[in-house]
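for the writeup, i need someone to sanity check this before i put it in the appendix. the sequnce is what the collaborator sent (i think, or maybe the updated version? ugh). structure was predicted straight from it, no edits. if anything looks off just tell me and ill rerun, i have time this weekend
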Amino acid sequence: MTDLDQSRVESLIDGELSWNELRNEVLPDPKDPDRFEKTREVLQERVDWDDPILVPLNDHLYVVGTDDGRVIRTDCGEDLCDAEENWKRSCQVFVREDEDELEELYEEYMHVSPEWAFELREWYCPECYQLMDVDAVPVGYPVIKPFEPDIDTFYEEWQGRPAPDREGEQAAD
């Protein structure tokens, strides 16, 4: 088993490892037991707030422990909602639904036809306008939360410890 040091974890998070490095050095080995904690520490160092990241949801979105409970927070520190709620409903959304808007991203004939009742929804942080997620859905499709992590089970059953409280310390048993 290969334990990844902090700089290697940073390279993994940033997508800077080559396919050969991933295939030959990272993927074949079982994950070192503290890789999640190393990853969490790297992510925590990159944000300007002190509340502990409990789990990352995507590249710019986290479940964070606060005085008020668990919230969904963006890189810039914008609290979108309680962790149980659908964070997309707190974002700015831009819907690409016609030919001109789709061709800003795709070459002509390289995207679906808007006549097929299709739209591309781009979800942005309401504070800093960082792109949070993209949905390619039929027109009228409901705004669905991508997933809801079971944080307590993840920590207790997968990490073998209680989830951190708001100060980043392990919760009392």
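The mean pLDDT is 83. The beta strands are 53-58, 61-66, 69-74, 79-82, 92-96, 118-124, 131-138.
thx in advance!!
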